[in-house]
Fold:
Amino acid sequence: DAGVIQSPRHEVTEMGQEVTLRCKPISGHDYLFWYRQTMMRGLELLIYFNNNVPIDDSGMPEDRFSAKMPNASFSTLKIQPSEPRDSAVYFCASSLFVGTDTQYFGPGTRLTVL
Amino acid sequence: AQKITQTQPGMFVQEKEAVTLDCTYDTSDPSYGLFWYKQPSSGEMIFLIYQGSYDQQNATEGRYSLNFQKARKSANLVISASQLGDSAMYFCAMREWGGNYGQNFVFGPGTRLSVLP
Structure:
C-alpha cells in the first residue's frame, strides 16, 4: 500500500515567492496533519483536518500560511509570500481516526527560502 | 513548560546491546497516549510504538518496548538487541484527549541514538 505522498521533496525559492506543498494521505484515513520541523523549534503541528474540514489551525504561524483539503485524497499548504525563516522540513501525516492516533508521516518537503 | 522532556540529546550503544531512551511527560489529563517515532537520516518519521494511559500492560512491538511508569510520568523506550539501522533520532510524543487536539499533541526534542559496530 502506498504511504503518505508529498511533493515536491525539495523546494528552493526566493523570498517573496509563493510556495505550494502537496500531500496525498493514505486512502481511507480521515485525519490529515501538517507539521513543520526546524532545529530551533523541533516538530510543530500547524493544522489538521478531519474529513476534509480544517479543525484546528492554531499552529499556523501567520496569515502568510494557508492550507486546504479540497477532497479526501489531496491537501495543500501554501506560503505567500515566503520568507527565509520559513525554511524547514514540512511533513504531512494521516491517521485513520483519533483513537490510538497512530499517524503515518510522509517523507517531508525540505523548503529553502533564499 | 515543556510537556515532553527527553534529557538525552545523544546516546551511544554497542551493536546487539539493549538501550533505553528516556521520556518524561507532564499532564493533568487522566486520558492520554504516548508515542515514539524514529527519524533516520533520510528524514522520514516512522511510528514505533503506542501506550495508552489506561493500558495495564507495557506496550511491545518486536524489539521495541515501552517502560511505562505512570506515577513517575515516564515512558521510556527500550530497544533490545540494537542494530546499526537503529541509528536515528527518536522522538517521544504525547496526545492528551481532553481539550483542543491541536494544542494537545506535542513532540519532545528528540534523542539521537548512534549504534556502534
In short: The longest strand of chain A covers residues 42-50. Chain A has a mean pLDDT of 92.
